[in-house]
Amino acid sequence: MDVEQREPRRRLTAQLRELRFDAGTLCLDLVATVGRRPEVPVERMGDAARLRAWCRGVGVTLEDGYDPQGVLESLHTLRAAAHDIASAALDAHRPRQESVDLVNLLAGAEPPAPRLESTAEGGWVPKGSRPLTEEALLSLVARDLIDLVTDEARRSRLTACASEVCRMLFLDPGGGRPRKWCSMRRCGNQAKAAGRRLRAAAP
Fold first, then answer.
1. 97 to each of 56, 100, 102, 190, 201, how far by Cα in Å?
2. SS3 state at 85
3. Residue 59: helix, strand or coil by DSSP?
4. pLDDT in tens, 28-75
């Protein structure tokens, strides 16, 4: 009986700690490395292995010899500023000036140069850039954030998950009904299940 009761909690914990790569843009994928912000925040990128997994997930490679702890601390600091600025763009509050100053400072570093690679079918795809320094990675994220909040078309698609315990920030892909949940598989299904329980309990 105990095993049956514990198993769902293990699965839930594993899911809560999963890295997310479905926020729609690089800076929001960084923000999503913290889950359940409104309640008890869940750290999803707290060690070197998770840092490597996040870099793979967003398609970047860091130069050999980087200091994982130093990069994590820098990304965590930028993450807090990015959440402050993106959430401000969503609900029109004023972000902290130190958040703005940090993003502007980091964006000033030289970003990686974009490159093209032809495919066998004759099309074009972005070619993976050279490994990044810590400064180049931070610049890439900071510039993406600046583009997000200053581009009216992109900013208009910025939304937050309707789940009060999630509130993950993401870009609605558009082209249909507005996306209400960060993921139907996650928060959407949980909301549907909660609704069914309420209806079943109603007199």
1. 32, 5, 9, 37, 48
2. helix
3. coil
4. 999 999 999 988 899 999 999 999 999 999 999 999 999 999 999 999
